[in-house]
Amino acid sequence: MIDVFSVLRGAIVLDPILSSIIGGVLVGFGIGMMLREETSTGGTDLLAQFIARMTNWNVGIIIFLMDALIITIGSFIIDSTSFLYSLIVVTVVGVVTTMLTQSKGWRHYVM
Distances in Å between the alpha carbon of 32 and those of 44, 63, 74, 100? Predict the structure, then answer.
């Protein structure tokens, strides 16, 4: 499948901030849909599900906090531009995941 789309490589060039937002929405949507079905991608998502069950916090908020902590620790070894883009992605993923995993569901925010 990657070979099919390899011809598009470089054809579409977006602003890095816009790419961060679009990527965050897509990743957040994917993770949110998985978490709604009580599945996990493993790693921090699995740990966040465990913590959410014990504390009654929203799993999206826990994932956001964990990812933000990881990005903050990583800020000591990455440049400030990469840190900013990473922070944008983590924030958007956290918001979208939280919206999809709340009991109200995503329709509450769209409709």
Answer: 14, 11, 24, 5
pLDDT for 103: 65
Q: What is the pLDDT, as a whole number, of residue 12?
A: 73
Burial (CB count within 10 angstroms: exposed 0-12, middle 13-18, buried 19+), residue 53: exposed
Q: Determine if residue 77 is left, alpha or beta; phi over 0 gives left, psi from -120 to 50 gives alpha, anything else beta.
A: alpha
**Quick one: 33 exposed, middle or buried, by C-beta within 10 A (0-12, 13-18, 19+)?**
middle
H helical segments located in the chain: 2-5, 16-36, 44-55, 59-74, 80-101, 107-110
Residues 6+ apart with CB under 8 A from 109: 99
- Site of tokens 């990455």: 78
Domain boundaries, the chain: 14-110
Residues lower than pLDDT 50 in the chain: none
